[in-house]
UniProtKB/TrEMBL annotation:
It comes from the Bacteria. Residues 6-115 form the DUF2383 domain. This is PA2169 family four-helix-bundle protein. Gene3D superfamilies: 1.20.1260.10. It comes from Methylophilus luteus. InterPro entries: CHP02284, DUF2383, Ferritin-like, Ferritin-like_SF, UCP029477. Pfam families: DUF2383.
């Protein structure tokens, strides 16, 4: 099993990834013109924010200092969304495509964390949160498919 400092580092990596997701969903909400899509992104942002706070609580309970910032890669990804949507006039499909890419990163981070021999109580939280990431990814993919089909018909 990994030591306490390793667990804190792994959790902080997940916090950073989740903060990226929280901000990514919020940014996506700002770049769509469909009210239902905007509400969806804002709800997902709030949900991911709750996951961030849960992970931060675990880090604090382990005696560590939880990170409270997004990653450089996440920030760059959001700037890419800003640029792409500016060029495509807030294209809902473009935003959904970029959001799905962000969720791909989150899936990989959670799966990587579960390859480590984490303490059982921490592992249980990571597994539960991974299920939330999978659900978000699936919902984004479904919405992307709907908007793609609509764009094809127009």
């Amino acid at each position: 099993m990994v030591d306490n400092n390793d667990v804190i580092a792994i959790l902080n990596d997940l916090i950073e990834t989740s903060k990226d997701g929280e901000e990514g969903f919020r940014s996506s909400a700002e770049h769509v013109d469909d009210a239902r899509l905007r509400d969806f992104f804002l709800r997902r942002s709030k949900e991911v924010g709750e996951s961030v706070r849960e992970l931060q609580g675990l880090v604090s309970a382990l005696g560590g200092v939880p990170v409270n910032a997004t990653s450089i890669g996440g920030t760059l990804h959001r700037r890419w969304i800003d640029l792409k949507t500016a060029l495509t006039a807030n294209d809902n499909l473009a935003v959904l495509n970029e959001t799905e890419r962000g969720e791909d990163v989150a899936l990989a981070a959670y799966r990587d964390a579960l390859e480590i021999d984490l303490p059982q109580e921490i592992r249980a939280v990571v597994i539960r949160q991974l299920e939330g990431v999978k659900r978000n990814h699936g919902l984004v993919k479904q919405l992307r498919d709907v908007f793609d089909a609509e764009a094809t018909m127009n």
